Amino acid sequence: MRAAADARDKQRVELHLKNAQHESLSRTIARRSCEYYETWPNQHSYSCSKCELKREAYAMRIDVHEWPLPNRPFEAEAIVFELECPSVFSIWRMRTYQILRDVGMAHTVQPEFTPPVVLKEYEGLAAWSKKSTSDRITLGSETKAFSSSHYRDVRIPAGEDDICVNNGLRFTLYDSMRGERVLSSFDLNLDSYCTLPLPEDGEGLYRHLQYAVMHTTYTHNETIVNQGDCPTKLSMHEQLAFSNLRCGSQLQWKNIVRELRANILTFSREEVHTLITQAAWQIGPLSMDGSIREWHFELGVPDFGIVLIREAMDLLLRIEANWMEGTTVKSISTSFSFH
């Protein structure tokens, strides 16, 4: 920090010169008397030389020199690193944060943060700031620099301690694109990216049942209550079958087998295909010992596997002569074959 030390020394020299100048003015002022108009002896002269010198002495000020780095070692090291942040690290950090924040936490809204000072614009360090490949993640201060606050200068006479001050900035990582502080922890939610949306159709018969595709945590009571939302062109029994299929994460395959036999669901509908595909493809959590996926443990039971295959084959036999059942065949082939 040789440059900062040299700048501080220059400021000390200027301080001594101005203090000496102020002292000289003060002696001159002390020797003089105020001037009055000759025609009005009791009226003070507007151009009184003594008062002019007083105003000159009072107006004397000197800029404060703020040390460019904080006296907290780790914080100072972090700032120096950011000044010449390696491009490879900068890109990696920005892309990683982009995935975590923009994708994994797109559902959250953080308070806005507009730092008074951004590191690359800070006068005390701007000359050493290397242009980064990615400026999205940078350092922003929660406090103002002395140079931009009302403490930026002091009145003469002053002491060295008055003009040589420590760094007052409090830097934190700042997301310049979103205008917010960089998060230190991430409550990720990728549900929307891992959930199949129900296809749009002109009738919108299943549009209100997207929740049945997205989650397995709703209850049978909720699906019963939701019967009031059933469109007139959709069977109430089919709505219940649709909404109950994923009702309970470890009941999904049992429900699928039951629906293959009951034949209440319209398997030729893309919406039903979407529901079954989501249930079959969403792997769910591992068991405590890490040996199986809890949502699909039935597929490791031979007797259940035989029942599942038999019901799927029976369904295929029922629709084999109907060329309009292509979606049904797709549901069985894409959802069951890979297991």
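The record above closes out task 2.4. Task 2.5 opens with a second protein, given below.
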Amino acid sequence: MKKLIAGCCALMVLAVGVANAQATAPPDGTEVQATPPAPAAAAPSAATPGKAAAKAASDKDTKLEEVLVTAQKRSQNVQNIPITIQALTAKDINQLGIKSSTDIAQAIPNIDIALPSGAGSQPIITIRGIGVNDFDTNNAGPNGVYVDEVYLSAPGSQTFQVFDLDRIEVLKGPQGTLYGRNTSGGAINFITAKPTDTFTADIHAGYSSYDTFSLEGAVGGPLAPGLDGRFALVKNNSDGYMTNALTGNHENGANDFATRGLLLYKPTSDLTLLFNVHGGQVNTRPTEYRHVGVFQPSAPGTQNDPVQYNNVPPGYPAYAGTPVQCSQAQISAGGCVDLFGYGTPQGFYNGSFDRQQNLVVNSIGSNLRVDYKPGSVSFTSITAFEHFDKFHPENTDAGPNRLLDIDFGVNSNSFTQEFRAAQDLGKLHWVLGIYNLDEWLSQDQPAGELLDFDTFYGAGAGNGVAAMLLDNSKQITTSGAIFGQADYALTEKLKLTLGGRFTDESKKFKTADSEAVQNNGINNFGPYTPLWSFDKSSYNSAASWRAALDYSFTKRILAYASAASGFKSADFNGGFLSTNPVEANVQSNPVSPEKVLAYEIGVKSELFDRRLLFNAAVFYNDYRDMQVFTQINPVAGGTGLPLLILTNAPKAHTDGIDLQMVAKPIRYLTATVNLGLLEAKIDQLTSIINTSGTTQSYAGNTLPLAPRTSLSGILDYRIPFETGTLDLQANANYRTKQYFDTTDDPLITQRSYWLENARVGYSFDQGIWEVAAFVHNLSNQKYLSDAFDESNPFGFIEEVVGTPRSVGVQLNYSF
């Protein structure tokens, strides 16, 4: 709280000081007073058009461009909105190499996106430390993902190919008074390029390391009077950067495509219909993880060499009794093994992976947007349907043996409907809407544990130990809301914003588990025996609100303060529950809704004749019953799958600072710095720490995926020549240490690291063509995007590795 108070004071002093400095400086025609109109009788000279064009070109080279966003359901300059918003334009997306919805964290501070199951699976999104570290596919997190204002309810559908976008908008803090689906942490909006009444075409082709090829294209224009269309597609292929010692093949590659078609129809001047149909598919080998052993090898010839994993010496198994865990230093050095004696591969991007099935993801959807404005009141209707299904054959143990393998299957269908009305009366602007979501989601998740037990511990040793589990669940969600927000100008400089929302949500969750245990030697299992089944439901309703004041010191300096409440409804644990019916019954109960009070004070400014943009915000989020996810391992030497616990932390908080600076210090040079400072702590939580029921307080622990410092910077220098323009760009981003679970487990912690990228492009023919070369991860940093501790009973750490250095070329065409 001291950090918040100090930050608020500093921002207010900064805002007032800057305002005074600008007010006493000579007016530049934009900051203090409006430029007077030219006399009506004055005819322009023959040189006027040329001078105007030259001035526009000069302004583009020396001044920052305005960025328009629709974060508040109307087109506005991002600098005039009293919330923290950061936008990436189509140019930014291309030059930063953003190919997936999960890539945006590299450019925006205080946001982190992990892929617990690798590319093609659901992300874990945290904004200002707010997220839920749950890899189950039934639990939508507290941060909303929208494409053209359509909420993607299935977590798995929130990872998708980025192509033909106009911009990306990231909103930080609770969003509900203007959005159909309530989110307590923030929202990410992806806005696609729309049809136009003139012909346009774009082609982006690229080739890079690991035989990676990408092709993106779009074409659009008029089809008939009042009817415009646009069609876009993207195709990605890659061999991958992981090496499989068993097959000699590469892993962690890509084979995916996506398409989108849009029709824009304007039958009258006050009616517009936009129809969108889209789909995509992923069909490739799933992401393979890095395997790290954690047990002491107790026999010669253990499987540290991934190529020679079958060379088991006589007298094996490795363990005659209870395995002994290595020290953290030994684990980091790579000298330890898992329960079956397989060690840590020597190369960071190497392994021995026995499963050879493909990850298959299919998605298809459509939506219809209708905008009608017969008078001063405008009406909007958005009707959408989304289908998503996935089969993910995960090599969970990341090794050559059948130690732990899980198939994640999910099928989701959702229907959403939103109606809005809005009116702009000058001093007053209001929006009122209603929203409904219906989702039907099912999960089919078979798992095999210790299936090769006999191979290493003797014939028949796996009887009663090796097992096949079958976990099935169905979830039906129905959510409705009424929401609204109004802005009122109290004076020429002071504006008040008030918003409210009422949410009503119900969920039905039906789950069942069955087990088949080895009973007559390896690969011999009896019939599946039902263990338990539950049919439960939850019902929640809540009111939330937002209030803000903003004051315009000048046309380009805005200070604001806001307070808002947020709400996330109850959720169910959709993962593998205990095989004990009593324990599973407790686990299957819904967790309580989480609530937040969020406070923010900030300043937005454009200074020195729009050569410098400086934005700053201080925030504090006070959480009650925050939903947290924890993996609980069996006691040392125990057997069975770890327990996956979804519970509530009675108290938690996050506070910090967001800073953004964009400058044009000299002509043609643009420098951008984004800085995020964050403290995200659990204030109260007591939970079991192993399956024996031992409890421990997690108070004071740092929330997952919440680095204390996140920083990104971009330098872009454009050098004009007679035949074209040379564009030199370098960017880098930095993250301090972060944890991957609520226990702050040191075995699954990522140290601080830098990622650097560079790009050189040359555009010619008035910018229609561009050729470019780039390098990503210039220093070849080895880092993790997520990790899971499976030390008990399996003896390994599962690490999701980040991509290594890649070098490539691009060809871009825009007409």
